[in-house]
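Sanity check

After download, print the first record. It should look like this:
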Amino acid sequence: MDLLLVPYSLGPDLKIIQWPPFLLASKIPVALDMATQFRGRDSDLWKRICADEYMKCAVIECYESFKQILHDLVIGETEKRYIVLVIISIIVKEVESNMTKNTLTINFRMGFLPSLCKKFVELVELLKNADPTKGGIVVVLLQDMLEVVTDMMVNEISELAELHQISKDTGKQVFAGTEAMPAIAFPPVVTAHWEEQLRRLYLLLTVKESAIEVPTNSEVRRRIAFFTNSLFMDMPRAPCVRKMLSFSVLTPYYSEETVYSKNDIEVENEDGVSIIYYLQKIFPVILPDEWNNFMERLDCKKDSEIWEKDENILQLRHWASLRGQTLCRTVRGMMYYRRALKLQAFLDMASDKEILDGYKAITLPSEEDKKSHRSLYANLEAMADMKFTYVATCQNYGNQKRSGDRRATDILNLMVNNPSLRVAYIDEVEEREGGQVQKVYYSVLIKAVDKRDQEIFRIKLPGPAKLGEGKPENQNHAIIFTRGEALQTIDMNQVKYIKRSLIKLTMDPLKKKG
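Expected structure tokens:
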């Protein structure tokens, strides 16, 4: 999945396009082999690298990221860190000076590059894990990298030689420090941008798959191709989210499956085929990697391991339900509207700094941001709530709840997992009126609060809602709970993904002109 991601936040010092990693896959290993075996002028080597735009971008990005990571590791005020920073500055200055003069292959032994890269990959792995007990290993790796770079230099640099001699005389490594005066900042301060940078850099350095093979899933390739082709359409400029029409989505539901139970998955039909058998044996013929990816997410090596944990069984129920004709699948698809609106509103409302930090930083807010009504997170939530409402008209929810039907619990769980989802149902109540007990009908709207359903509105109906045409007309009682200028009715079993949910341009023609 990470191979497909474009960085949320660009590096401030990068002057290149940061392509998705799958386009840059294997470029660094190839460039290393090319540089190691090359015999000629710098300009000729760089010309060969630049012949492949993706390879050029990968080399520049890795070099700039390499410098940034080393700088972040030694940032601080202690004397020891200052010395380390001086060493790094001397080496970088020497490298870039030779690059400018086209003498890099003359003054540096390029055969040491694979060894240096191997050490750097090990360092990135340690930084990704950020294990505080591995600080000593990080120091040793940095020391090894310094020695490799020193061996690469044809001409010795006097400042480095002096520092190296002092290190030998004192018996202390250059990157080593004390508890009171550490030479490096490990573990580093972990931010969303830092984690993203490390993941991306690790992929650039290690992945050797062909870009043709990523993604392997044919449905994913179809969606990406469909979306990217649509970007080349001659489209009018879309309004900002604040100015678009607000709308609601209404889905009728009676008693269909909400989420498959464990028994639903295991029971065999008249042909002796169960849902789990189909998903394991037949479905992979169509999309061969989906079951394997699911097993990998659960960290299960064998199919039998899934049934050993309740959490795994719950994940399996949801995974199977999203591939069947269930309410769960429809709700997940329709809620992409809200997610897409928040993303588009972020691009409308975010400052330059917030754009640089990336949308992912907003989707993982601090407790302070959640409580503040002025934070960008709160504004995005409010904007999405103003522009989009989703009501599932689960007509029988009241009866299902009273009878202890599992589907009522599943519907409640859907509301808990999707806080902006609203459910409307018909409540049948017996009331005494004029000395007689009569059945009275109410249209009720509920939401989830503290993992329980909470009533929002209750409207008395003139009589029973069941009409001759069945479920579609029976759900009209819920229209009063929808909001906005437009209403979209989506039947059960429909699916949607986020590329189809960028709706603000679609809504524009519905505005009244003049």
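If your output differs, re-run the checksum step. Summary of this record's structure: The chain has a mean pLDDT of 83.
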